[in-house]
């Protein structure tokens, strides 16, 4: 979605910790409970919703909410 919509900014977090062990600590730091894990924020920086696992329709719903708020 980010590749086709200029209003969407995508940020990725590398949980491999540079090839060393520690990915679990990084996941805990960001409250990531499943992969993939998507957090959608509005322009004001408020969290609209989080999706753990593959649920593209839920992500699209949160993106639409973020754009309208």
- Name the average pLDDT: 87
Going across the biggest sheet, name each strand in turn: 1-2
Number of helices, counting only DSSP H or I runs of 4 residues or more: 2
Report the structural category: alpha+beta
Low-confidence stretches are none
Radius of gyration: 13 Å
Largest sheet: 2 strands, antiparallel
Give the amount of beta strand, in percent: 15-25%
Give me the strand/helix succession.
HEEH
Q: How many domains, in number, for the residues?
A: 1
Describe this structure in words.
The chain is 29% helix and 16% strand. The chain has 2 helices and 2 strands; from the N terminus they run H-E-E-H. It is of the alpha+beta class and 69 residues long. The radius of gyration is 13 Å and the shape is elongated. The model has no long low-confidence stretch (mean pLDDT 87). It has one domain. The protein has a two-stranded antiparallel ribbon.
Topology:
Elements: H1 23-29, E1 37-41, E2 47-52, H2 56-68
Antiparallel strand pairs: 1-2
Main attributes?
69 residues, 2 strands, single chain, two-stranded antiparallel sheet, 2 helices, alpha+beta, elongated
């Amino acid at each position: 979605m980010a590749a086709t919509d200029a209003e969407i900014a995508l940020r990725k977090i590398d949980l491999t910790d540079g090839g060393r062990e520690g990915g679990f600590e990084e996941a805990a730091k960001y409250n990531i409970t499943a992969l993939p894990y998507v957090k959608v924020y509005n322009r004001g920086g408020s969290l609209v919703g989080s999706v753990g696992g593959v649920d593209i329709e839920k992500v699209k719903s949160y993106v639409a909410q973020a754009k309208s708020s």
